Amino acid sequence: MEEKFGQQHKEAMLGDIKAGGYPDHGSGRYTMELGYKGWHEFMVAQRVHYNYLESISQILTLILVTGLNHP
User: Fold this and answer.
1) Is residue 28, in this structure, part of any structural domain at all?
2) Residue 46's domain spans which residues?
3) For the segment 11-25, what is each residue's pLDDT rounded down to a tens digit?
4) What is the dihedral of CA 42, 45, 50, 56, to 10 degrees?
5) How many domains does the chain have?
6) Fewer C-beta within 10 Å: the chain N or C terminus?
7) Residue 1 has what DSSP assignment?
8) Could you tell me which residues come within 8 angstroms of residue 16 by beta carbon, excluding any fewer than 6 positions away?
9) How far apart are CA 46 and CA 55, in angstroms?
10) What is the Cα–Cα distance from 22 to 49, expressed in whole angstroms?
11) Is residue 66 part of a domain?
12) Highest-confidence segment of 1-5, 8-12, 13-17
């Protein structure tokens, strides 16, 4: 990624290659270089990750409540 976008990023961030936070989430400049198959795989991975984040708090809460009620 740095080979293709390093110079552009340095110019936009005034020389600081670490500035700028996360790249994109599947619909931006970096994933355009992946092609359709790579983009699709990336989007599936993103969705799996978000599904996990959306449900983990509920699961952990239910495990905690069950453990407290049935030690």
Assistant:
1) yes
2) 24-71
3) 776 666 665 555 566
4) -160
5) 1
6) C
7) -
8) 10
9) 14
10) 15
11) yes
12) 8-12
Over residues 33-62, the pLDDT tens digits come to 778 888 888 888 889 999 999 999 999 999
Using the structure block, give the residue that is written with the tokens 């449900």: 55
AA identity, residue 49: H
Sequential DSSP letters for 13-43:
TTT-TTTT----SSSSTTGGGGHHHHHHHHH
Contact by Cβ (8 Å): 13, 20: yes
For tokens 């359709």, the residue is: 36
CA–CA separation, 17 and 7 (whole Å): 9
- Residue 56 resides in a domain: yes
Q: What are the structure tokens assigned to 7, written together?
A: 């110079």
Question: The tokens 């989007």 sit on which residue?
Answer: 43
CA angle, 48 then 51 then 57, to 5°: 135
For residues 37 and 34, give the distance between their C-alpha atoms in angstroms, rounded to a whole number.
Answer: 7
